[in-house]
């Protein structure tokens, strides 16, 4: 089996199927996105969003068996969650490489113009060929915005908040958020005909997210993106596709006559899908519709199971009536002469009718709705420090190079602190300082004796990609703790993924494993760096709610707009490594 690829002004998948061994990611997916349409991919971590984007981009997927047909514009650009740059790459070189295709298009236009002006191509077939070549080159140059490349580069760097970074710096010398924004700038600068974006708002603050939203709404070609950012989905997507395989039963129910009212699932103009369903409303509306569908699915499943029990009992009882095995008595013989034939026919009809209804329902019954993956919360087991009051940690007059300078920061047992600020403001550096992973150049970081600090980092890297989550978990937290708090009980991974190699799991699934490794032994101070990145919206919401009752201090660094609006604790705002403000929510 293989993928057949062709070129089109649309992004299209026909009968696309992907499997890893005996695990099928999706089957017979049909998808069409027209120029000017922006399709948001949603669904649980691991349902295949990144895989679908890679395939649409023409990228091979390791260890996967793929079949189907794909069509895409010849110049299709893909933004990966992790930028594919080496630490030694210069920022200026990254941007210049992004313009390579634009430069090539410009050179072809010059060559086509020269050929068109050649006297030997003035007439006949040669002239027609030269004219067609020039027109094609001119169209390509207009789509790639060849003549505005320098101005666009400056505008993109400014809009994404990275214009002040020296282009001679290397990728390894800038923060993870800055690397991601340079990757986004490079992609947009190349001006491909179609855009494929994997979690594009990770590491973006309010201003840069708004800038990207404006850019994408004006994009002329088809756009497909995977995102966990509800606001971004609401503001940008013209349609949504949920790849969660659990939707199949609900959607079948919606089509079966249960009554799909206003706001139900429906295709959007220019978008089509099978194997995942397109929804034409906003993401907030989609969540309500999805909850209603699941409720209807559950009710139909329960009703059909009750009906199956009744039919099976009816068939068994009627069959006993027919084959009671008792021969007729002398008194029965006279009556049977007139009634026996008619009674047998009626009983046989009832048996046949019940058997037909039973066979039909057994064949066509909706499957049981899969149990939703739900975060089970923070397990018990944090060791007390003795005192119920007093400070756990205190930072005093500490600085780290030009990345962070902070006067005094006190962390108490019940602290709930949200650290905000633009990328490069020092949020991750502050968490690293509290975690003991970053040493201050000046000042002190005092921790209470016996304090255990846990850090959920932005970027997850596992040294052994072949290890399973279950083995990695036991190795990290210890066999005894793994038995007391099993990984399967945390609600962070589906049972089918517990024994797969971590290297083949999605970025979101790997982030869930990293979260499990921290909360298995709840630390006294829990530090989370952009905790909602790579997590599905449902899981991110459950995590936020669980942190509200966490049995220790919580410090979160985030620019998630939804999280910030709902925050009810203290807030510390950083600007260029310094405290720009602090507040306590009312």
From TrEMBL:
Listed InterPro entries: AAA+_ATPase (IPR003593), ABC_transporter-like_ATP-bd (IPR003439), ABC_transporter-like_CS (IPR017871), ABCF (IPR050611), P-loop_NTPase (IPR027417)
Organism this protein belongs to: Agromyces intestinalis
Highest taxon above the source species: Bacteria
Limits of the ABC transporter domain: 11-270, 373-586
Pfam families: ABC_tran
Alphabetized UniProt keyword annotations: ATP-binding, Coiled coil, Nucleotide-binding, Repeat
Name of the featured protein: ABC-F family ATP-binding cassette domain-containing protein
GO terms for MF: ATP binding; ATP hydrolysis activity
Ranges in coiled-coil conformation: 287-364
